[in-house]
């Protein structure tokens, strides 16, 4: 039993997720203040296991598991949270004011790994403010599931020297026809990927786009088996938040260990040979 189990779990078990996230964030703030805490955390959680690397959106991820938006709202602890085993951290959701706050923090403590910004208002201003400081952008259209906000962002990206991916985050509930409209727009206009909110959405997007749009599964993953299911359904990456808050830092390590074991078993069952086409890299099969 670790410190998180003693100090935090009793308070987060039955609390709503936003309140529970605040308790968890306070715990991680405390860990940050311990001398050498980041190095110790990275060593304990072994956040770069070999065998789970993949390239998505043109970025190199050392495993498929990231932290979803909603915990580190303003970019206060992204490096410390990354050390738990996440290959990327998504800060936000936020608008321009939140981005300004996050940028000040990033300038003081540059990110060690891939950092994404989730933007849900003031889209163009927030996007341009964050462009030089984040590695990719998740545009949350939950409040207004329209592609109208995307055109100015795509135009603004054309003026930048460095290309950075733009991902569209879907609402939790959206009719298939409206999802397909967004997918058609994305395929025709250079959107780099979709953040799906359910396993059903993951499967639908993967099937409709024929794998041409990478998918981040933000599907309330609370077990290693659910993470593997999302990847098998067609996701390239998965995000967790609830599971981390409810179960603690070991949750991420448990997912990575499960995935490594699962894919090692697949390799033994279906070995690659020189005489046959190579199997697709799991879990993108």
3D architecture notes:
This protein has a single domain, classed as Alpha-Beta Barrel (TIM Barrel), CATH 3.20.20. With 285 residues, it is α/β, with parallel strands linked by helices. The chain has an 8-stranded parallel β-barrel with strand order 3-4-5-6-7-8-9-10, surrounded by 5 helices. The longest helix is centred in the last third of the chain and has 20 residues. 46% of the residues lie in helices and 15% in strands. α6 links the parallel β4 and β5. α9 packs across α10.
In N-to-C order, the SSE pattern is HHHHEEEHEHEHEHEHEHEHEHH
Total discrete domains: 1
Instruction: Estimate the strand proportion.
Output: 5-15%
Radius of gyration: 19 Å
CATH class category = Alpha Beta
Topology, number of strands: 10
Q: Which whole number gives the mean pLDDT? A: 87
First-to-last CA distance: 36 Å
| Fraction of residues in H or I helices | 40-55%
Q: Give me the CATH superfamily.
A: Aldolase class I
The CATH topology, please?
A: TIM Barrel
Tell me what the CATH architecture is.
Answer: Alpha-Beta Barrel
Low-confidence regions? 270-285
- Main sheet makeup: 8 strands, parallel, barrel
Biggest sheet, strands in spatial order?
3-4-5-6-7-8-9-10
> Count the helices. How many?
13
Silhouette: globular
Structural class: alpha/beta
């Amino acid at each position: 039993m670790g410190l998180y189990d003693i100090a935090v779990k009793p308070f987060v078990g039955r609390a709503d997720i936003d309140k529970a996230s605040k308790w968890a964030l306070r715990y991680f703030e405390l860990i940050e203040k311990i001398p050498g805490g980041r190095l110790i955390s990275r060593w304990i959680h072994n956040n770069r296991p070999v065998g789970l690397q993949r390239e998505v959106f043109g970025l190199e991820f050392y495993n498929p598991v990231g932290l979803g938006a909603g915990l580190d709202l303003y970019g206060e602890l992204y490096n410390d949270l990354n050390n738990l085993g996440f290959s990327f951290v998504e800060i936000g959701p936020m608008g321009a004011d939140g981005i300004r706050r996050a940028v000040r923090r990033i300038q003081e403590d540059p990110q060690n790994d891939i950092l994404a910004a989730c933007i849900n208002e003031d889209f163009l201003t927030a996007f341009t403010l964050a462009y030089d400081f984040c590695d990719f952008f998740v545009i949350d259209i939950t409040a207004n599931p329209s592609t109208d906000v995307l055109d100015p962002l795509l135009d603004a990206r054309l003026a930048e020297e460095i290309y950075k991916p733009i991902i569209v985050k879907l609402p939790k509930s959206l009719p298939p026809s409206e999802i397909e409209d967004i997918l058609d727009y994305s395929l025709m206009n250079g959107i780099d990927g979709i953040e799906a909110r359910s396993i059903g959405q993951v499967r639908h997007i993967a099937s409709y786009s024929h794998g041409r749009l990478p998918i981040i599964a933000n599907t309330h993953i609370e077990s290693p088996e659910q993470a593997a299911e999302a990847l098998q359904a067609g996701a390239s990456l998965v995000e967790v938040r609830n599971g981390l808050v409810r179960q603690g830092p070991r949750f991420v390590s448990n997912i990575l260990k499960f995935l490594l074991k699962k894919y090692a078993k697949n390799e033994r069952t279906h070995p690659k040979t020189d005489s046959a086409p190579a199997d697709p890299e799991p879990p993108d099969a």
